[in-house]
Amino acid sequence: MSDDVVLWEKDSEDAFVTLTLNRPDKMNAMNQALGDALEAAVVRAVKDPDVRAVIITGAGRAFTTGFDLGGEDFEMDAERWREDIGANMRRMALIREAPLPIIAAVNGYALAGGLELMMCCDMTIAAEDALLGEPEVRHVSAPPTLMLPWTVPMIHARRLMYTGDLIDGREAERIHLVNMAVPLDRLKEESEKLARKCARMPGAAIKFAKAALNHQQETSGLGSSWIYNRETTAILHGSDEGRHWMRLLKDHSLKEFLAIREKPFRDLD
Fold it and tell me: Mind listing the pLDDT tens digit for each residue in 64-107?
């Protein structure tokens, strides 16, 4: 497999491209290099007249486990967190606003920022055994965007954001977090079938339908909800409890940190 952190594969028959997040040894955790590469690939797809649909998927055992927690010092004040969250918001908005249909093909884990990436795509097909959720709430964190209440009924958004529970693809389909859950060996086939259908549609029809649907969410308050979420998340991360958890992350290996985080829930999950 290529050393590129995002792989570009143009279909030989239809006008769509598959972008594969390619850090399988890190469960496709999103660092600066991966974020930059994904942004560049989406911009490239938008500018390419021969691309009319995009699939985003992950190499190996995960779609993406979210933002990379290794190798950085996250013990920051609220103002620095505002800047960091704002940069991630901008990238997520690029996915959401791209004038092409973008399909998430979720294999394995889609967690935290990875779940937000998935929800910023237009549609999602997930493997039945995929695991999805916002587990970062268990270490006093929160997503960079606030897509759950714009994707699922509030009662399900509250459960996922209050507990950090992970749900499988079948449950995600039941609560309308994804469009369809299929056996893993059919994920590629089904996501490509959907991409082919979109690629064969009149391009302007989807472009302006997406613009209208996005505008409906904007007029309902999506943009202001993202901004409010940035402020509350920055305050949360800059709080004493937030700094405590970020200090634990700095002082322990990621494996040790996750063991500490998950210990109170072992008899409940």
Answer: 999 998 767 788 888 889 999 999 999 999 999 999 999 999 99
CA-wise closest residue to 8 among 45, 34, 33: 45
Look at residues 169, 171, 164, 142 and name the one whose alpha carbon lies nearest to residue 262: 164
Q: Does residue 237 come out as left (phi exceeding 0), alpha (psi in the -120 to 50 range) or beta? A: alpha
> What kind and span of H or E run contains 123?
strand 123-127
Element at 249 (helix H, strand E): helix 240-251
Q: What is the C-alpha separation between 175 and 1, in angstroms, rounded?
A: 35
Residues annotated as catalytic (active site), given as ranges: 116, 136
pTM of the entire predicted model: 0.95
**Homologous superfamily of 6-265:** 2-enoyl-CoA Hydratase; Chain A, domain 1 (3.90.226.10)
Cα-trace Rg, the chain: 18
Domain boundaries, the chain: 6-265
